[in-house]
Structures are given as C-alpha cells and as structure tokens.
Amino acid sequence: MAAWQTTLNTFILQAKAGGLKTSNYPKEFEELRLRVSFGMGAPSRIPWIAFLAPEMNVSSGYYPVYLYYKDLDILILAYGISETYTFAFTWPDEISGLRPKISTYLNKKVARYGDSFVFKAYKVDVSDKKVSYTNLDSNLNISEDDIESDLKNIIEYYKKAVQIPLNPATLETTQGLFYMEKQLEDFIIHNWENTDLGKKYNLIIEEGELLSQQYRTEIGPIDILARDKKTNDYVVIELKKDQTSDDTIGQLTRYMGWVKQKWGGDVKGVIIAGNYDRRLDLAQTVVPGVELFIYEVDFKLRKFIK
Question: Which pTM was predicted?
C-alpha cells in the first residue's frame, strides 16, 4: 500500500473511532506543513487534514485540505479557504469560477467549510477496518495510485498559486519577527496545554469544535478567547502583530469591553509580544486585569517580569 494511502486510511479509521490524538501523523508532505484535526475536547463532525505553505496557517489562508463529512461518509479534497480570518490572497479566479462550492456540490447546508471549493469527492466505505473509496461523480472505485495522484495534482497547483509577488512597500522591516508572529497564533492553539496560558486558562470548545481561535464579534475577530480555570471569567488574548503599541492596547480593551457588555462579570486581558515594549508595559500597569507575555524565537512563552 502506498505511504499516503496508509496515512489517509488511518485518518478515516480514527475519525470513525472518535480518537483525537494527532502526534502520530507526519508533519510534512510534499514540502508543505501537514496539520490534522479531529476536534478538541470532543470529536468534530468534520475532521480534516490541511497542507500549508509557509506563509499560511489554518486560521488564516488558503490551502489543499481533506474534509471528512462523517455523517455523509463523504471525503472531499478541497481548495480550502479559512473560515476564521481573511488572508491577503486566495485561490485564483479560475478556481472560484470553475469549481463548485462544497455546499453547492452537496446540495445542502453543511455544518462548516461550505465556501471551500471541491477538487475531488469520494464516497468512503469502511468494512472490517478496511477503507475503500469511490469517485462520487463516476461511482467508480478509486485506486491507491489515483488517491495519491489527486493529492499531488492539487498540491502542485497550490505551489504555483502561492507564488504571488508581494508589494515590497507592504513588507515589515522586521520581516523575520513578523513572519513568526503570523504563525504564533496556530502554535499557541496547538500547544495550548504546554504553555503558561494553558495552565491557567481553558479554550472554548463546543460539540468538538474549537471556538476560541479568531472568535467572531461584530467589532472584529478576537485572536484567542479563553476562560479562567478557577473563576470561569473570560480572557481576551491578543497578539501584537503589525500594529503600534497604542493600537494593540486599544484593540484589547475594546474586545474586553465587548465581552463584558455581552456576558457581564470580570474580564481579563493578555497581550503577547515578540519583545519588550515600554509603551505596552506602561499601559498594562494602569489597565486592570491585563498581563503581558513575551515569546521567545523558538515559540516558548514566558510571563513578562520587570
């Protein structure tokens, strides 16, 4: 059996069984980062495998992705689009113009990812822990070579699509740090229990779906919304990215105000920055309930102490 077919079969069987562990899956495929999710805290209705270019992450970007609609036993290899945060670019117009959205293809409102575009769709059959795939359009059995060929074809197209030139005037002068900050949010979420944040706060998960990351509000998305393990108070966590210190503290307090108005009670705030910033330090000393964290270049978090 082809190596990728083994990985995909393992994914389907685990999705059926309800396990959440992902550490046994490869971290890369065809020079792209590979990320797998079966849900957090409880099994998700739509487990996925995503293939990410360096500048993309699951919450912000576009990428090839397997989406397994368990209730339908349908696996879709999709031109995936993040639902949580809009990236600067997306799939070329030829994709949106020629490929159906998942919701249109399945002719029903789906729980999630309905705006991503279908590349291939397979009917999945599991019998005696053996997995087989049928092309949903032709109703023909799909071989191991076909499965791997389909994946490599969409990945090859993706690698060409992401080679979109950026306007040099828009690049940060501290590009290395800014690049890491774009990846930091995903890193924190995936390693939550191993950070100082995870020791004090819980992510918000409902029906196996993570809601904390890029939590949607009518005034914009909160980077991470969590809850205090002891008090159950809401905690607004904001990453200082390509913005000033004043913008960062203003954005944090604005979201804290929104949370307090919506749910009441005490609200805490956390700012995560790449280096010491005296402006942030001064501001957080007079804003009740706000903490400042500094992250190291290897993505370890430590609480800022004077």
Answer: 0.59
